[in-house]
Write a structure and sequence with these properties.
The protein is of the alpha/beta class. Helices cover 36% and strands 33% of the residues. It has 8 helices and 16 strands. The relative contact order is 0.17. The protein binds adenosine-5'-triphosphate and magnesium ion. Magnesium ion binds next to helix 7.
Amino acid sequence: MKIVVKIGGSLADDGLEKVIMNVSVATVGNQMVVVHGGGPQINDLSERLGKKPVYVTAPSGFKSRYTDEETRNIAVMAMVGNVNKKIVSLLNLRGVPAVGISGADGPTLIAKRKDKLIVQEGEKKRVLRGDYSGKIDEANGELISLLVSLGYVPVVAPIAMSSDGELVNVDGDRAAAYIAKAINADVLVSVTDVPGLILDGEVVRRLSMNEAEKLVPMIEGGMRKKIFAALEALKIGVPAIVICSGLMENAVVSAIRMESGTVITK
Ligand SMILES: Nc1ncnc2c1ncn2[C@@H]1O[C@H](COP(=O)(O)OP(=O)(O)OP(=O)(O)O)[C@@H](O)[C@H]1O
Ligand SMILES: [Mg+2]
């Protein structure tokens, strides 16, 4: 099977060794590509450099980071420099031949820089310029497929290139969706710090696209973004998305078998 695993930034510190073990077990007999997040690690580095992270709310209610140029540079340092190399070294330590790249290499991820953010502040809307986050337009799977064909496991940081050659910060789950499409993956597994989508205290086991769309207003925070990214993945042609906890025994293997987590299909 061809599998894309997205490792949540929510796991990139304490739980990482456990997650890496789960990923490495799942590489046996499969072709694997890893994509990761890194929100908490960007915040951590930013705070340590004396820059307080800024979040803004869109008129739709979506909260997002305001990524000015300095924050973008911090995001590159935290994700490409730190999180990516940590995952690569832990995989290599377990005998998985990992190669770390960013989405800008190749380039693999091409995005439109947002620049302008519309911010809702109470009753008022305001335009905030100078944002360096991006919306992915397309993924080019050539470099990744080449690495996979040589037996390597590519590990991709969610930094993309804009058409003007600028580096932009992109959402990890969206990056994973576009990469899964570009390499024709059979499944996208999003490992995070919760066992799936939880509603009324229980993990939702299976969802169709229609059902997921209807549930969106009831979901909050990071999971809401994740469900949106899963819907986008299905729309561009990824056959199945499984959201699961990376901390459970055999997490990735059982997710691929669709025996755990929340499975979303068309
Ligand atoms: N209904 C819900 N079910 C499950 N998790 C939920 C729900 N509503 C909100 N969440 C939150 O969503 C979080 C997962 O998304 P989050 O974006 O924080 O993690 P991630 O995608 O793994 O990390 P990153 O975005 O840094 O890569 C959970 O830790 C949980 O707190
Ligand atoms: Mg997330």
